[in-house]
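User: Structure tokens for this complex, please. No commentary.
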Amino acid sequence: MSVKHSLLALLERGPAYGYQLRAAFESATGNTWPLNIGQVYTTLNRLERDELVEALPENDSGQRPYRITEAGRRQVAGWFASPVQAADRPRDELTIKLALAVTTPGVDVADVVQRQRSATLRLLQEFTRLKAAEDEAELAWRLVLESMIFRAEAEIRWLDHTEAVVARAGLPKSPVFEFGGDAPADAEPGLNEILEEKR
Amino acid sequence: MTVLHLRGVGRVHGTGDNAVHALVDADLTIAAGELVAIMGPSGSGKSTLLNLAGGLDAPTSGEVLVEGTVLASLNKKRLAALRRRSVGYVFQDYNLIPSLTAAENASLPLELDGTSAGKARRTALAALEEVGLDVKQADRFPDELSGGQAQRVAIARALIGERRLVLADEPTGALDSTTGEEVLKLLRRRCDAGAAGLLVTHDARHAGWADRVVFLRDGRIVDSSAPLADAETLLEGAQ
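Assistant:
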């Protein structure tokens, strides 16, 4: 997430000091991504250094508001004008986990899928409850909630799909690493047994 | 207070080698105020469970209790009376009677139960108003209503009178997503007001409205979503 661009976007509303920016950010996103105040000030300092914002004189209560500069405006416009790249998003652990689950000997893929489905559905229930409770909520916060609802829904659909595909096609034979000489003897307990205990 | 209780319920079709186990040893309790969703692939036993819960089908093993009464202990006539008075159904295709108006459809369970026509109509109009149907639509026939309006009438009918158990089988079927969500909100509100609801759905978004989600696979309950976490920890997990 770009704190830099978020703060610049907020400053488009008018000059503000650190605490105000943090509060505005959290109110727009429903406290979903808490910002610590240190992070806000560090970012403001960097923005000032890069001449994207300028510090105004301290007011009577000792607060120092910042104002966006023309260069800052161009940054914000550029940010809104460009799509988020896939590379800017973190790697998806669930996808990796399932890709490995279907090729790791001893893993019950259906069980992995079901555990995830239950957990994601529970999140979805929570988001729905929040949404139902906040019919009058700010538009920005409602959009954030709905984005999460859509994501959870997509994840569950993908899990259903994965389960169906695995059930139909069966699991591939797990590939084995090749060794030049003799393979090392396998004396460790199998994953099978450990997983069985966890169930 | 427990409204619906399934105790070790099973349903087998056919015998011997041809036996199909549609539902196996299902245990489920739904309290007043609770909405429970059932999810699972097609053929997993969702509709069987719903039909057993509403007394539309009888289990081959175990017991179904509605408000403390074992359904199998009732004769046909009393079972029909219980279904009429305690259980409401909402189906995918609304199941409204085409030759009756919205108000007449909604008041049908009351009239079948011997309530006077005048009182039945007044109750039906109140029920229709509660589900958000415009009073002008009360005297229209089902084919003059939109899908969303027809489903509202079906829900009003399912909840009219003192009925405490609502069974809904894919109630948002052919509705667009916004109207579908309205229907779910309505069910949710009725459960918050004290009804017990059982909702069969394949749609995770709809199951999101439930307090609990039960997963069925090959006739067995394989999992159910645990009690809800508190909202504080929730958003951290979403980052």
